[in-house]
Amino acid sequence: MTSSDNPFAAPASGAAALTPEPVEGELASRGSRLAAAIIDVLIMMAVFFPIILVLGFTVTEQQGPMVQIMIGGVAVLVSLGINGWLLHTRGQTLGKMVMKIRIVRVDGVATTGWDTIGKRLLPLWLVQMIPVIGSFLGLLDVLFIFRQDRRCLHDMIAGTEVISLKSASGR
Length: 171
Hints:
three-stranded antiparallel sheet, 3 strands, single chain
């Protein structure tokens, strides 16, 4: 019995359709990555603060950890609502779109939602919730951008890098 006779075998022509196209571009500058992050934070602030006001939450020292976890959960959901689909389909947030930069795997292939959200964002979000250690890791993550390959810790965990689309299009 050959593989073509096997009713449980994967279709031969489907493998090529599942292979993402390589994305061309040079490494994004540290400045463009910083500008994209600032744009993303400003968008989050513009959306998140009214939600917090509507829900009646204010950040105070008297709140227990459960309220702060709820606020953090709302922030994660809002962030995923704003950028989740873009990260999954384009490897970009709104800030990255404005700055014409994109997340790709180090082999140059476009990322999947798992690459950008599951491997790149989720592990650090979870660890950053740990008091003291989380803040230190957040700072360490950002400082990794000063390496020669300009990859932050979250890029290294996910096997990704950020490229400039400007250089790829010749603009």
